[in-house]
């Protein structure tokens, strides 16, 4: 089983969320499936493209899908949900609009007829890895309560993405259970963290993330699990600033679901990038024994 | 709250223009307000999301395209998900932002957001991918007032090896440049 790997800009080495990419690749080395980077991929354009230029946004995304098709991939993993969402939406937009499709093909200088399936990370694990996680489980955490935080882009728009429940998703909670941790019930699973406003309207991000962190702590979570680099940056990198702004202390680790899986497989914390966080992750690492 | 709006003879075409351009059925909206009730950023907006739809319906083009709301929409898509009439509100915000830029009507009070988008896209245009450090650099030079707030985290990112100094140019960067030329 060979799956095209589209890391996107935020999680490649030397980027702000590199530990997500590091841990996704490390885990796949142990339980598969084999991930092969799509040669010469480009940025999907993210919010800045779709918010200002629909055609540009579509063309930037589709070029990557066409490259994947050219190299013979049937499926692509895009661990960043901004990327997976943009790729899936663009794929639907060109399928629904013949004129747009022609313009995009002209712009990217490649055909786009793809039936390539785009997977987010939770979907990859659910479709291919649950049995192998169970078989390779080396460490289970003692009483580790996790708030699974999905954010916006994994589940919305539901009509296009068709993944999990947009109001009360369960796929990440299932993975948390599979590694022996306890998912908590909480109300902020799919609330917005402010996403791309982290630099331009930091005040908005601080308010939204303060609510999310408070919700997780009130639900009794020891840590929050995420599968999105923007969610991670806003909850982890900005946590000190949130604490300062709202004059309180959270000190709650924000971990990628791939890092949790890696800890359960007994892969070293440093090899998973757990030393790269802003909020200390030691309490989570030590819970696995 | 009373809102004074300016309508003229071309106003009636606005809803049609938006619908034709986007395929979004703006005229279906019956103003139930569910979009506004679930919007996480409504508290910062000058007009509520349902008011923006109303502006489009009645042809108050200027009010819609100069609003801060269209820029403050975080594209979380909660509104579209919950709309009982299946109006794609978040996607409508994309179209309105695009039109606002085309007509030079983007609200200057949200210049941080529009400048960020520009810096982000410039990095892709130049390298094919985002070079976070150089994108940040361009943005901070243009919006110096925002520089201070990240003085704490930037050195930490660098010391963790998470802010690379070298931009990565993709091989197909000329194609990317041409994509921009054809789409802009």
Word description of this protein:
The complex is a heterodimer of chains A (289) and B (184). Chain A has 289 residues and is an alpha/beta fold. The mean pLDDT of chain A is 97. In chain A, α3 packs across α5, α6 packs parallel to α8 and α9 crosses α11. In chain A, the strands form 2 sheets. A 4-stranded parallel β-sheet of chain A has the order 2-1-3-4, with helices on both faces. Chain B folds into 2 domains: 95 residues, no CATH class; 75 residues, no CATH class. Chain B starts with 11 loop residues before the first helix and ends with a helix. Classes of the chains: A alpha/beta (289), B mainly alpha (184). Chains A and B meet through α2, α3, α5 and α9 of A and α6, α7, α8, α9 and α10 of B.
Question: How is the largest sheet of chain A built, in terms of strand order?
Answer: 2-1-3-4
Overall structural class of chain B, as computed from helix and strand content, comes to: mainly alpha
What percentage of the residues of chain A does DSSP assign to strands (E)? 5-15%
Tell me the series of helices and strands of chain B, N- to C-terminal. Answer: HHHHHHHHHHH
Described by the principal axes of the CA atoms, the overall outline of chain A is: globular
Based on CA atoms alone, the radius of gyration of chain A comes out at 19 Å
